[in-house]
Design a protein that fits this description.
13 strands, rod-shaped, five-stranded parallel sheet, single chain, 394 residues, 46% helix, alpha/beta
Length: 394
């Protein structure tokens, strides 16, 4: 009858040794393996605190300390959360029943008791005890999860505040962001046709520029930081020869923000190349085209970055119809040693010609790569082998 509770701990308390033996024997035969007993109330209280029973069968009338006092002691012990007590007594008076129940007893049986009824009452109390323990564990788990989420939220808020502070410091400090320029060279003549503006940050922590822009975007200040970099680059355009263009990196987020509109009527707009970078997927190109069109009408050109690195860059080309395509450095790297890369690079060179766009092979780092790209017909190149990014000369 109690096999599924065989690991439950039951304590039998009665000053009548015969009753104790009978109950213990009966409970063990029903499937319980952890049945303990006491014939003295003091011993019963000690066992409660040392064995943490799941159910107590308690006689009310015992010498020295009766069952009522045991019930009072259990009720007053803050360390005992829930311990169901089944009172067994020959006292059938209403006062005895009411007093026992008011002191915390969960059930009541009178002597002489029916063994089957005792087992059924014990089973019911064990089910209640197990449900309570399961609920307690569930609540504890919920409390732990809530605490974990609160801690995570506090950490997120703290981290966001720190990010806001860092990005705000960069936005309001002229010395924290500098711009260097890397030449883009025409292969046929080795003449510089343009410069790409690249940001460099001096603030803490020391890290790559893309991580600074990612952090700014994460706190809603991406367009502001990008625009500061664009303004810094554009402010130096008068130091660049008139026949060279200036390429600046812009994200769809910056384009959609409308902050680039200030350049549309600027006299230098015709020398700008807007190099579109992608940090998040673009679902709708319509608004981006609408924002870029006024800049194009004033002479600005659009370049698509990372061509050949993934599907998104090809979608950019098809939907934005750029004037310039940038061959991703992953294709340039080792193109002189990898037939597959050469084949793909050659097809993209041909593709650029077909759509009347100019192609820039970026990331050129060796003479072998440069020679191969020249043989493939790449018109423009860029990379450390050509020139390092540097500030403009005074």
């Amino acid at each position: 009858m109690l096999d599924r509770f065989r690991d439950a701990k039951v304590l039998v308390v009665d000053d009548n040794v015969a009753n104790v033996q009978l109950l213990v024997s009966m409970l063990r035969r029903s499937g319980l393996r952890a049945v303990s007993s006491a014939t003295d109330a003091y011993e019963a209280l000690r066992l409660v605190r040392t064995t943490d029973p799941d159910v107590v069968l308690l006689d009310l009338h015992m010498p020295r300390i009766d069952g009522y006092t045991v019930l009072e002691s259990l009720a007053g012990d803050a360390s005992i959360e829930y311990l169901p007590v089944l009172v067994l007594t020959a006292d059938t008076t209403r006062d005895a029943v009411h007093r026992a129940l008011s002191l915390g007893a969960r059930d009541f049986l009178t002597k002489p008791f029916d063994m089957t009824e005792v087992l059924l009452r014990v089973r019911n109390l064990l089910e209640t005890r197990y449900l309570y323990k399961a609920l307690r564990e569930h609540n504890s788990s919920l409390a732990d999860e809530l605490a974990r989420r609160e801690a995570a939220e506090q950490e997120r808020v703290r981290s966001r505040e720190e990010s806001l502070k860092r990005i705000d410091a960069v936005l309001h400090c002229d010395d924290s962001l500098a711009v260097v320029f890397q030449p883009i060279v025409e292969l046929a003549t080795r003449r510089t046709v343009g410069l790409e503006a690249l940001s460099r940050f001096s603030g803490e922590p020391l890290r790559s520029p893309d991580l600074w822009f990612d952090e700014a975007s994460s706190v809603g200040l991406g367009p502001e930081l990008e625009m500061k970099a664009v303004r810094s680059a554009v402010s130096q355009l008068d130091r660049i020869p008139d026949d060279e263009f200036l390429a600046v990196n812009v994200s769809p987020e910056l384009v959609l923000s409308g902050k680039l509109d200030e350049l549309a009527s600027h006299e230098i707009c015709s020398r700008l190349v807007l190099e579109l970078t992608e940090h998040v997927a673009v679902d709708d190109y319509g608004p981006i085209r609408s924002r870029i069109e006024p800049l194009r009408e004033h002479g600005a050109q659009v370049a698509v970055d990372d061509t050949g690195a993934g599907f998104s860059s090809l979608r950019h080309i098809l939907l934005l119809q750029p004037e310039i395509i940038k061959l991703d450095r992953s294709l340039t790297l080792g193109v002189d040693r990898d037939p597959a890369k050469r084949a793909l690079a050659a097809s993209l060179v041909s593709f650029a010609v077909d759509i009347d766009a100019r192609l820039i092979a970026e990331g050129v780092e060796t003479e072998g790569e440069l020679t191969t790209l020249e043989l493939l017909g790449a018109p423009w190149v860029q990379g450390f082998h050509i020139a390092m990014p540097e500030p403009l000369p005074e």
